[in-house]
Amino acid sequence: MRVVVQGVSVWGPGLSGWPQAERVLRGEEPWQDGSVTPPPAQCLPANERRRSGALTRLALALAEEACQQAALQPSALRGVFACSNSDGAVVDSILSAITTEGGEVSPTQFHNSVHNAPAGYWTIGHHTHVPVVALGCYDWSFTQGLLKAVAECVVEKTPTVLVVYDLPIPGPIGKVRITENPFGCAFVLHPDINQQGICHLDIRYDAASAQYDHVGHPDLVKLMHTNPAAMALPLLEKIATGEEGCVKMACLPGTLSATVKPC
Predict the structure, then answer these.
(1) CA-CA distance, 86 to 165, in Å (whole number)?
(2) Nearest CA among 203, 124, 122 for reference residue 161
(3) Which residues form the Beta-ketoacyl synthase-like N-terminal domain (predicted)?
(4) Mind listing the pLDDT tens digit for each residue in 231-260?
(5) Is residue 89 predicted with pLDDT exceeding 80?
(6) Which residue in 88, 95, 104, 136 has the fewest CB atoms around it within 10 Å?
(7) In a 3-state reduction of DSSP, which class is residue 218?
(8) 219 CA to centre of own chain
(9) How high is the pLDDT of residue 251?
(10) Residue 99, H or E segment
(11) Which of 219, 258, 227, 261 is nearest to 27 (CA)?
(12) Rounded to whole angstroms, how far apart are CA atoms 259 and 261?
């Protein structure tokens, strides 16, 4: 399956949006560890913005940057939102409340706890009726999300935004499901390979093999393994360098291969 990547976004430690992250991934700018502060979600009304959690704000910031770069209206795009952990902070808060005498769970906390909350906020913010899917595939949420997004883009012949994101989980759950850093990325994919864009992606899935490539940037190797969404780093690095080549990524069961060719 072949698509054109027309927009990219990434936010994580030392990676603040695609223009800056692209320079780091190319080796043109040193990587410096730092906190993640994505811009606020401009698509949400003030009341909805206050109700949304940090995970939703990260997902919407990623999607909006990628759409702006692609110069496409978000309301016209199909969407795939992929996340391994969901909003662990909200879930931890709810569990703490129900295990504490007299604890109460607010309706706002409850509706933010569901896995498709960021996707729901996205459709509300952009008044879109185009289908949006929310996926949770453990450590393989990025590759399964990419496979789903490319398939939707090609089969439905409609531009599609893929958004992948995860945050650390506080409390007892976070001691078992360890995620050390916040990270997220987004891609706007177009089905017409004659369209202008950043690069072409040729996606192939092999259920029989099991292999993946590491990110080449030495400072980002650890980051790749401290957040499920950061498994996207080898592909992001290949796109940033502007070099043609193939990236292999774990996609249980099997391997997802992405051949990158600059436009």
Answers:
(1) 9
(2) 122
(3) 30-202
(4) 999 999 999 999 999 999 999 889 999 999
(5) yes
(6) 104
(7) helix
(8) 20
(9) 93
(10) none
(11) 219
(12) 7
